[in-house]
Amino acid sequence: MSVIVASDLDRTLIYSAAALALTMPDARAPRLLCVEVHESRPLSYMTETAAELLAELGDAAVFVPTTTRTRKQYQRINLPGPAPTYAICANGGHLLVDGVSDPDWHAQVTARLADQCAPLAEVQEHLLRAADPVWVRKHRVADDLFAYLVVERELLQEDWVKELAVWAENRGWTVSLQGRKIYAVPKPLTKSAAMREVARRTGASLTLAAGDSLLDTDLLLAADQGWRPGHGELADTGFTAPSVRVLPERGVLAGERILREFLRAVRGA
Questions:
Q1: Rg of the chain, C-alpha, whole Å
Q2: Alpha helices for 85-188 (secondary structure H)
Q3: Is 143 a residue whose pLDDT tops 80?
Q4: pTM, whole model, 2 decimals?
Q5: How do beta strands 100-101 and 146-151 pair?
């Protein structure tokens, strides 16, 4: 039986120093492995045990890293185990095959966006006009597919995010607040569509998924079985579904637990 494991990365399998949630005494903290370096500085980590589990998973199933990161941001990550044949970047906008974006898939996605939602330029203009420079640090566009802001969370007004979500909803877009980033993403741009394409190409008979943010909702619901950690947007909103298991672990230990659950499901298939 061919099994696909499509997992979100940030705050699901890999963690920044700020997201590790090492609440145990220092002497009991897990050993960490750095899996991403940016501008010569360590940026993302997983536990050494999680690294071993991921290497095992890569040998036992079709592991598909599934991220909202751009291709360039994804390619900074150096995950343990065999290099994935498939990876999903830009929230499904790019399907990488052996590290190269599939042009036919990208063309399908861009045609769908043009047909079903307001253009990126309109959303960019609104963000530039409506966001307060007091708390905005950066305006960014990701692979010409969606936009996001890097903000100072302690200065951000939560009502502003809610108002943005309503504005975006009326134009076929969705909004997600993750850490210091506010994402505005077209609704037809989904991780689940790309996962289904990988399943079609591989003939997979079982799909497993994990994620922590609102942008992972469709991925979790599309999979045969899913898991979410005890932190993140989905935890904050109390998201549940019959096929999604809620885990109590938070922070980097949640990533370890998710990989154990993946391996248990793959071996039981």
A1: 18
A2: 103-116, 120-130, 158-169
A3: yes
A4: 0.94
A5: unpaired
